[in-house]
Amino acid sequence: MRFRDTITFAGITLLSARKRTGLMLVAMAIGVGSVIVLTALGEGARRYVSNQFSSLGTHLLIVLPGRVETTGGHPPLVGGTPKDLTLNDAAALTRAGSIRRIAPLSLGSAPISYQQRERDVTVMGSTTELLAVRNLALAKGRFLPPGDPSRESAVTVIGSKLKKELFGNGAALGRWVRIHDRRFRVIGILKPLGQSLGVDVSDTAIIPVASALSLFNTHTLYRILVQANSRDAIPKARKTIIELIRKRHDGVEDITVISQNALLSTFDGIFRSLTLTVAGIAAISLAVAGILIMNVMLVSVSQRTEEIGLLKAVGSPARQIQQLFLIEAGMLAIAGATIGVITGVAGVWAMDNALPRFSLSVPLWSVGAAVAVALLTGLVFGILPARRAASLDPVQALGGK
Amino acid sequence: MIRLEALNRTFQVGDESVHALRNLDLQIESGDYVSIMGPSGSGKSTLLNILGLLDRPDSGRYLLDGTDTVTLSEEERALFRRAHVGFVFQSFHLIPRLSAADNVALPMILAGVDPEIRRKRVQTILRSLGLEDRASHRPSQLSGGQRQRTAIARATIMNPGLLLADEPTGNLDKHSGEDVMNTLESLNAQGITLLVVTHDPDIGRRARRCIHMDDGGVASDRFNASTTPDAV
Ligand SMILES: Nc1ncnc2c1ncn2[C@@H]1O[C@H](COP(=O)(O)OP(=O)(O)O)[C@@H](O)[C@H]1O
Ligand SMILES: [Mg+2]
Q1: What is the DSSP string of B171-194?
Q2: What is the C-alpha separation between A45 and A41, in angstroms, rounded?
Q3: A217 with A131, same domain?
Q4: ipTM for this model
Q5: Which of A7, A140, B193, B198 stands 20 to 30 A from A33 (CA)?
């Protein structure tokens, strides 16, 4: 039998049983569609988190006071609170190898006002290096000027959202704002960057670190951000930082160094396995579709018993009849998968448009996998009905038995 | 040439075994026209099914043009049917969702014959059976006689040497039955070996050779003097 004739024959058969065919197509399409939508969501979440990390800055290491990680082998930290991270610690790191730049970071919340408008915002104290370390960009003006980090200076760089709320559409550069009880001159406005690891930089005011420490009445840094020379230099930079700070803190290792890449790959792994799990669960619906196909095809075989007898009488070998039924199942699977891919992709596209801050796209591998699994399901579950059809006794089949 | 030797076919019905054919010996010459009559249950259909390689005997030999068919595999028997045997059934067995032309073409489609050759052959055969203006009709849109003639066209599209008709006029009125018999006989006149199972003595009498069966065996076997059916 020619391939085209086989397809035509199976196609006519499928079209003549519209309800049955429609039901099986829907089942298949739901299975394939849900695999596609769920993997797109999983991948989207992974990419979202990964973007969050890279928006932090490149080759970034974050130094925080206190031992958060418990590294096996070391004796637990006995007694005493960890020593504070200070500007002097930060200054010491500047001269270390493998490190390109550092930005000390002090963080607090304070009211900021201009004329009658007042808002509570996050105030970040840092140095001119923060711009490069955190991948920030200016929309207008300039960033914190270089200079001795321990010197206070009454200047501030504000986020785009904060600028809108304090100044509306009016000019902000050169104006004096009040943060807590001090006056600062606005020298720069940040480009909108969106959320980055929970801190909305568009809603912050950045001031020199010395001013921030004095504003919050402390000498403790919240973090030290370190940019390594390269990706490969990260482990070495990490070692250097730990060594240096330990020396400065009387030989006690009382800091934690988080490297962005390590975090990123951990999250990456978590999200990837999450995506696969969810896709696997969705694939179960494909198996359900397969069982439905099997049952409906078995009914179809028993309804078409006489026809199968006739095919045998006019010289169709069992092998050919099995093929005919398998191709029917395969065509159902392909058609169902196609509908599923189209609706799945359309659904993902719609969700992508509905969630502007969350970028969604269908991973190509999931389309391939879904279609392959659908086809396999159709064939695997089509085998039993096809075998049954092929094994019918021609005389009995002609008699409808 | 067909030769059956000591053919037996039994069916198991519950605890009982029904002897459909008992020690049947029969020889049929190529190109012959044979009618098979007999009471219901006498084994006529079973005989036809075995002759057409749809069924297999439990014992005995069936030689078709010199080859022993009992040892053929399922696939070999199917391919033999495809090339050498045409079946005509009482209930037509047309596929309802296919047009008359596609029903006729079915054996060629299954055999993988080139579509162009198929189309021409179907056209020719439909014309010769007076069905050319029914080619695109579904079986449900055809009369009984037209359906059976479509089935005959399907049975002969592969140019078989043997045509087996099991009560071909059983579901037809007198007039359509006459049409169908004429069609079959004209095919026999062109050389095909024709076996017709029938309950109608008038139809049975038309054949060159009349076999009466009873209880799985041949009760009488008569050759008609007149070899030309009176209808032609
Ligand atoms: N598949 C079958 N199972 C059981 N008995 C059968 C089967 N086919 C035929 N028979 C029996 O074999 C005998 C001959 O049947 P059949 O050849 O159909 O007779 P006829 O066509 O002459 O009426 C009958 O007694 C019938 O009941
Ligand atoms: Mg019968």
Answers
A1: TS-HHHHHHHHHHHHHHHHTT-EE
A2: 6
A3: yes
A4: 0.94
A5: A7
pLDDT tens column, A264-288: 777 778 888 888 888 888 878 888 8
Which helix or strand (DSSP H or E) is residue A287 part of?
helix A260-303
Put simply, whether the predicted model's pTM sits higher than 0.80 gets the answer: no
Cα separation values, A298 from A11, A158, A219, B49, Å = 18, 70, 79, 27
Total domains present in chain A: 2
Ligand 1 atom nearest B21 alpha carbon:
14
Burial class of residue A283, CB neighbours in 10 A (0-12, 13-18, 19+): buried
* Residues A336-392: tens digit of each pLDDT: 999 999 999 999 999 999 988 788 888 888 899 888 888 898 899 999 999 999 999
- For residue A328, tell me if it sits in a domain: yes
H or E, element range at B26 = strand B16-28
Cα–chain center distance at A96: 34
Q: Within an 8 Å CB–CB cutoff, is residue B56 touching chain A?
A: no
Rounded distance from Cα B45 to ligand 2 centre (Å): 4
- Residues in chain A within 8 Å Cβ distance of B81: 312-315
A370 is in which domain, residue-wise?
A: 3-52+265-398
Of the candidates A12, A306, A311, which has its C-beta nearest B110's C-beta? A311
Residue A29 within a domain: yes
Q: Would you call A1 and B109 a contact, using CB atoms and an 8 Å cutoff?
A: yes
Residue type, A177: V
